[in-house]
Design brief:
The protein has helices spanning 154-161, 163-172, 189-192, 197-214, 231-242, 272-284, 305-317, 333-338, 340-352; strands spanning 6-7, 11-17, 21-27, 40-41, 47-53, 60-69, 74-77, 85-86, 93-97, 115-123, 128-136, 148-152, 180-184, 224-229, 249-253, 294-299, 322-327. The chain is of the alpha/beta class. The strands form three sheets. The protein has an eight-stranded mixed β-sheet, with helices on both faces. Strands 3, 6, 7, 8 and 9 form a five-stranded antiparallel β-sheet that branches. Helix 4 crosses helix 5 and helix 6 packs parallel to helix 7 (305-317). The N and C termini lie far apart (56 Å).
């Protein structure tokens, strides 16, 4: 019999039942630096129990169970006793919603859906076609100049963070003007989104000009915003620093702004040094010649919080109108979803309304 997970103001408690196991462990981004917490076997039975203090700074927890089988095989699985799941590009994770958590209200709002059409943008610099989806808000005329949001990992944002659904609702409520969003799929993500000048040049010299042809904007800079999460946020900031007039504003979520003194645990990432050099340059720079509005978000439960604070402080010192929104979650798609409104909405209103 499955025993559902329990959460209170003070602790979380889980029970797993399964025969032939040597260990059961709790895997979460909140505990990934140290050894994962281990369940305790209940006598000689097949029941395993775990009680943990409520994690600091979060109102929801995404997790998997690591099962060590008798033959030494390790298996990562969602909690079979917990029906609440968060989908993601690497599979579902179980979710505990703690007291105080509430999903965004726009998830319940009805709005006329905009139009979607596939994108395939050729790039000689990347030796590839950058694919994606172009969303236009409801009743937008083809060829009509409209503000444009360019989104890294765009199809994933739409699928796992409900970005298009949120934009449909914001336009329907007249919080945002009629607009378009280019949802770009990455090409060799770890390479191109890791402060790669080749990608920044491709975005500025090939991809955005092609977007301007298929999705014209009233003003080529002020009416164009860039958006991304994790490495996608890093790549957006890097593209802006290499090509300062590319975007009129940026929305950066949980940016992977790695530095040696803060992020030594990430040193095995293949492009860690390149990212670290770029972020170090941002933090050492003087007054910016072309500053733009920047909204950053980061979860209080994230390892990225320290480096996001450092980049926020650096941009503020260089004359940017920058805000860092710290919220009660970790590094995941629902975390990013939950702060899209009002923070993305406010940034785009500032630029376009």
């Amino acid at each position: 019999m499955a025993v559902p997970a329990r959460a209170s103001d003070d602790e979380i408690a889980l029970t797993f039942r399964g025969p032939g196991l040597r260990a059961v462990r709790f895997r979460s981004d909140l505990t990934k630096r140290g050894q994962p917490p281990e369940f305790r076997r209940r006598g000689r039975s097949s029941a395993w129990d775990l009680t943990l203090p409520r994690p600091y700074g979060v109102d929801r927890v995404e997790y998997l169970l690591e099962l060590l089988h008798a033959d030494g095989e390790i298996e990562l699985v969602p909690d079979p006793a917990n029906p609440l799941l968060a989908p993601g590009p690497f599979g579902d994770k179980s979710v505990l919603e703690l007291p105080g958590y509430a999903p965004p209200v726009w998830l319940e709002e009805e709005a006329e859906a905009g139009a979607l059409k596939p994108l395939a943008l050729p790039s000689r610099l990347l030796r590839a076609r950058v694919e994606g989806v172009l969303w236009s808000s409801a009743n937008a005329e083809s060829g009509e100049p409209l503000p444009l949001l360019v989104v890294h990992d765009g199809p994933e944002y739409a699928e796992f963070s409900g970005l298009i659904r949120m934009l449909d609702a914001a336009v329907a409520q007249l919080e945002l003007p009629p607009m378009r969003a280019a949802l770009l799929r990455p090409v060799r993500r770890d390479e191109t989104y890791s402060a790669a000048k080749r990608y920044a040049d491709a975005l500025a010299l090939e991809l955005v000009p092609e977007l301007s042809r298929v999705a014209p904007a009233p003003d080529e800079t002020g009416m164009r915003a860039g958006m991304g999460a994790s490495l996608g946020a890093l790549a957006m900031l890097h593209a802006h620093r290499v090509h300062p007039h590319l975007f009129g504003g940026l929305f950066l979520q949980s940016g992977s702004f790695f530095r040696r003194e803060l992020d030594g645990y990430e040193r095995n990432f293949p492009r860690f040094e390149r990212i670290s050099r770029f972020v170090g340059g941002v933090r050492r720079a003087g007054w910016a010649t072309h500053s733009i509005p920047v909204t950053m978000t980061c979860g209080l439960g994230e390892e990225n919080l320290g480096n996001n604070r450092a980049v926020r402080d650096a941009l503020a010192g260089q004359g940017y109108l920058v805000e860092l929104v710290e919220h009660r979650d970790a590094h995941n798609w629902v975390s990013w979803r939950d702060v899209l409104d009002p923070h993305l909405t406010v940034l785009l209103e500032t630029m376009w309304v």
